Amino acid sequence: MTGIVFHATERREAVVEFYRERLNATVRLEQPDCTILAFDGFLFGFCERDAADDCGILTFVYPDRDGVDAASERLGDAVVTEPRENETYDIYQCFAEDPEGRTVECQVFLDEGVDIE
């Protein structure tokens, strides 16, 4: 089974380019006013609308700290919180913002017993 999370966007081209260029997402499907992207098993889409929604967090999970660090480097000036450990959730994470202000999180679970696949 799989699912897709869709977000309304006013700047579809810029937003899609951001996720493709900075987080290595791939285009899975182009529709008349929507683009569906994939990152590993995570499917998410952006549909052209009159107003963008920017609630929630798009979280990208990596296998290790190096993956989070590399993502942080690719995100560059979009990073708002540099990579750090979060003891509450036993994760290593960083935060960024996409071109419309959506929160983007890159993280790895530090507890090797956690398996979300």
From TrEMBL:
It comes from the Archaea. This is Glyoxalase.
